[in-house]
Amino acid sequence: MYAALQLNAQTTSSWLGAGKPVDPYHYTQVKHDFFKNAAVSCAHPLASMIGAQMMKQGGNAFDAGIAVQLALAVVYPAAGNIGGGGFLIAKKANNKFLAIDYREVAPGKATQNMYLDKDGNAQLDLSQNGRLASGVPGTIAGLFATLPSAKLNFKTLIQPAIELASKGYVITEREANSLNSNQKAFIKNNNFAPAFVKTQTWKAGDTLIQPELANTLIRIRDQGAKGFYEGETAKLIVDEMRKGNGIISLEDLKNYKAKFRDPLSFNYNGYTIYGFPPPSSGGILLLQMMKMVENSKEIKKGFQTPESTQIMIEAERRAYADRAEHLGDPDFWKVPLKGLSSNSYLVNRMSNFTPGKASKSVDIGAGTIKESEQTTHISIYDKEGNMVSITTTLNGGYGAKTVVQGAGFLLNNEMDDFSVKPGVANMFGAVGGEANAIQAGKRMLSSMCPVVVTKNGKPAIVVGTPGGTTIPTSVYQALINVFEFGMNTDNAINQPKFHHQHLPDEVFIEPSFPEALKSSLISMGYKLTNRASIGKTEMIQIHKDKIEVAADRRGDDSVAGF
Ligand code: DON
């Protein structure tokens, strides 16, 4: 069927092929490296290489951020996207900070009880799969909100993605397995065969070509954000909605706006950490967890000691209890950020911490405030001194699993990040209430946590990760591994992780979590639950004379630079 599909415009292949800057048929992963000028770490080697090339040919970290996101929308369809949304936080070389919120919003026809059946039962299949699961996408608006900080023109930045989509790229074994395990879902949630559907099974080395996606990217190249939010692409999205129960309208698309936010910052051991404020819970959770352990005698006991691990778990439990109760879109809900981040509040939260004994989530609950698994992360640093940290998502792997027919991209299933019904867990086990209830035009609460860190005002660290509700704990543990346990970048992100999110009252651990530490925690009263993997963290550390960059070893993630 694809042979018959004509591309709307000719593209000159200036990027791809043997001897070109990026060879989509031969590439390898680089997990840890040092560079002098600029570095990128993200979920796919081809996208990292494209980011580094953009900076080599005169672009800055913002150019790289735009080009990498567009490339990931092609080569990492499980999470890279133009049909999703995300957050960008950056410290510019001129010392200004930028926080762009391009989170999806609930469509105009969305209502608080839209996922409840007539008896009031939550229908999570509808918030997690298919057209009704999709919020209004924000990514393209986010890219155009980033563009004024970039140096190259948009046509240059999107060109590699167009070529990757139209000519194809070779998939890895992990991608082949991932596409194979989603075949049934792709068939169920589409009434045509998207490019991801194959009669035989996918195998490593197969070429994935996405001509319809290439045409959508060409419309965006030629018409800017209108190439997505209006005209042909918008019409294709609305046509897709009409095929089933979708509710995104032409007005919803036309009205979508990215928003600029004020980063949330705090100090830890001489570093200043800048995180994303609501509608993401990422920054405030990170602040709370880090401040609850800072200067404690337990954290000073060292890496993987029962004492440091226990206090970190208890900080996680308490921070996540607050998330469920107090956090939501600040344009719709008064989020008590000051109270949640005040020192006295956090000290008080830890006052019932008992060394050697697990607390119980039923006894913890949320504090009283007296105040009025797919996502993908990109870390970038350039030679001018710009730090750019981007986390972007479709929510679940391949989002709603529904591809917009004719436009070739996946819809997100971000509506599931709202609290569909008070107390009903979403796909990440997160619960919520009024603060995160569905309302038309509202942004669903996120856990995404892109971070930049300075030391004495100078660039120090760029970090972030996917992982649903485990995102803030992954970033927290990676930073504590550097700040308290003196690890290098590669070690800091690849240590086995542990995650507690208040409810369920258990600690999720990765397979390589040490046996002795498991026994210690069990004897303190913790319930441990194995989990295949937690997060895929990308970290850059800026040293005096070099840039150190690492990509998570849990995936195909890879670094590039020069
Ligand atoms: O915004 C959020 O918190 C979620 N939609 C993120 C989903 C995610 O990280 C899935 N990844 N592994």
Key traits:
seven-stranded antiparallel β-sheet, 19 helices, globular, 562 residues, alpha+beta, binds 6-diazenyl-5-OXO-L-norleucine
Q: What is the overall pLDDT average?
A: 95
The overall strand count is 19
The ligands bound in this entry are:
6-diazenyl-5-OXO-L-norleucine
Main sheet strand line-up? 1-18-17-13-12-9-8
Low-confidence stretches at least 5 residues in length (pLDDT < 50)? 1-5
* Structural class computed from helices and strand pairing: alpha+beta
β-sheet strand percentage:
5-15%
Could you estimate the helical fraction of the residues in percent?
25-40%
Please characterize this protein's 3D structure:
The chain is α+β, with helices and mostly antiparallel strands and 562 residues long. The longest helix is centred in the middle third of the chain and has 21 residues, at 306-326. Helix 1 packs antiparallel against helix 2 (61-75) and helix 12 packs antiparallel against helix 13 (306-326). It has a domain at 44-259 and 376-415. It has 19 helices and 19 strands. A hairpin with a 5-residue loop joins strand 3 (85-91) and strand 4. The site of 6-diazenyl-5-OXO-L-norleucine has 14 residues, from loops.
Secondary-structure blueprint of this entry?
Blueprint: E1 32-35, E2 39-42, H1 45-56, H2 61-75, E3 85-91, E4 97-102, H3 124-128, H4 139-146, H5 154-167, E5 169-170, H6 173-181, H7 183-188, E6 207-208, H8 211-223, H9 226-229, H10 231-242, H11 250-255, E7 259-260, E8 264-268, E9 271-275, H12 282-293, H13 306-326, H14 337-341, H15 343-349, H16 361-364, E10 375-381, E11 387-393, E12 451-455, E13 458-464, H17 471-483, H18 489-494, E14 498-499, E15 507-509, H19 515-524, E16 528-530, E17 538-542, E18 547-550, E19 558-561
Parallel strand pairs: 15-16
Antiparallel strand pairs: 1-18, 2-10, 2-19, 3-4, 3-11, 4-7, 5-6, 8-9, 9-12, 10-11, 12-13, 13-17, 14-15, 17-18
Helix pairs in contact: 1-2, 2-5, 5-8, 12-13, 12-17
Bound molecules: 6-diazenyl-5-OXO-L-norleucine.
The site of 6-diazenyl-5-OXO-L-norleucine has 14 residues, from loops.
